[in-house]
Amino acid sequence: MNYRHAFHAGNFADVVKHALLCRLVRYLQKKEGAIRIFDTHAGPGLYDLAAEAAERTREYQSGIAALAAAAPAIRADPFLADYWQIVAPAFQASRYPGSPLIARRLLREQDRLSAYELHPEDGAALKRLFAGDIAVKAIALDGFLALGAHLPPKEKRGLVLIDPPFEKTSEIDDIVAGLTKALGRWRGGTYAVWYPIKKPAMVERLRTALTALSPGEAVDVAFLREPLSPDERFVGTGLFVINPPFVFADEAAAILSTLAPVLGRGNAATFAIKVSTSRPA
Ligand code: SAM
C-alpha cells in the first residue's frame, strides 16, 4: 500500500467530496431516527498541512486554502455552511479534517460512525483519533470486506462512503463486487463512490458499472477544474451516489456553481450532474 492521503489532504477534490458529504448526511438527519455512516476507506482522519507530506505537494493550496482566501460571500453559501464550520477552525490551526472526522462532527447523539482503514500507520492514527469515543468504531479491516460483513446496520438508515485510492487496476472490480454484496444486504442505504477524473475510459467503465447495479435512482456528480488532458493528469473529481436524497442533484449543482470560480484553473472549471433511474425490466 503506497498511497497516503496526507499528500493530498485538503486538495480541490477533498473540498468538493467533503462539501457534498455534509449535504448527504444532513439530509439523512432530517428524520429523528438514528443513522449509521460507514467510511470504508477512511484515512487517518486528521492531517497536518504544515507537515512534510502536505508541504511537498502543496495540493491544499488550490483546495481548502483557496476557499479560505475566497470572498466571504462564497463561504456563506448555506449549502457550504456545515462544511466550512467544520474545516475552518482546523484550517486556522494548519490542519485538515478527513472524511471520518467530518462525519463525526456531523453526528447527533443517536448516530454512529464505522470507519475502516487498512494502512497500518493511518489505521493506528485513526484509532488514536477516536479512542474513547463511543459513537465511532475505527476498524483496521479491508473496507470492501466490511461492505459484505457489516451491513445492514441496526439503524436502518445511513450512508456508505467508498473512497479508495485507485492505485490498483482491480479497484473498479472491488467496488462493483463490494457494492453488489452491500446492496443485496442493504438495498435502501445511500452509497457514495468517489472517483478521480484522469482517464476518460476508466471513468466511463466505472459509471457504466455503477449505473447498472443501482437499484433505483443514482446521481453522478463530476467536477472538472480544467479540461481533460491528453497526459491523463488529475483534472477532476467525481461522486456517484446510489439512492441519493431527492434534493441532492440540485444541492450539488448549487455547491459546484459556488465552488467553480474558487477551485477552477483560470476560469476553466465545468461540472456535470447526471441523474439516472433504473427501472425493473
Ligand atoms: N476518505 C478519506 C477522506 O476523504 O478524508 C480519504 C481516503 S484515501 C483517498 C484512501 C484510503 O484508503 C487510504 O488511507 C488507504 O490507506 C486506504 N485503503 C486502501 N485500500 C483499503 C482497503 N481495502 N480497505 C480500507 N482502507 C483502504
TrEMBL record:
Highest rank taxon of the organism: Bacteria
Site (Interaction with substrate rRNA): Y3
Active-site residues, Swiss-Prot/TrEMBL: D163
GO annotation terms (biological process): rRNA base methylation
Pfam families found in the cross-reference section: RsmJ
Catalyzed reactions per annotation: adenosine(2030) in 23S rRNA + S-adenosyl-L-methionine = N(6)-methyladenosine(2030) in 23S rRNA + S-adenosyl-L-homocysteine + H(+)
GO molecular function terms listed in the Swiss-Prot or TrEMBL record: 23S rRNA (adenine(2030)-N(6))-methyltransferase activity; RNA binding
Function as written in the Swiss-Prot or TrEMBL entry: Specifically methylates the adenine in position 2030 of 23S rRNA.
Family the entry assigns: Belongs to the RlmJ family.
Protein name (Swiss-Prot/TrEMBL): Ribosomal RNA large subunit methyltransferase J
Species this protein is from: Jiella flava
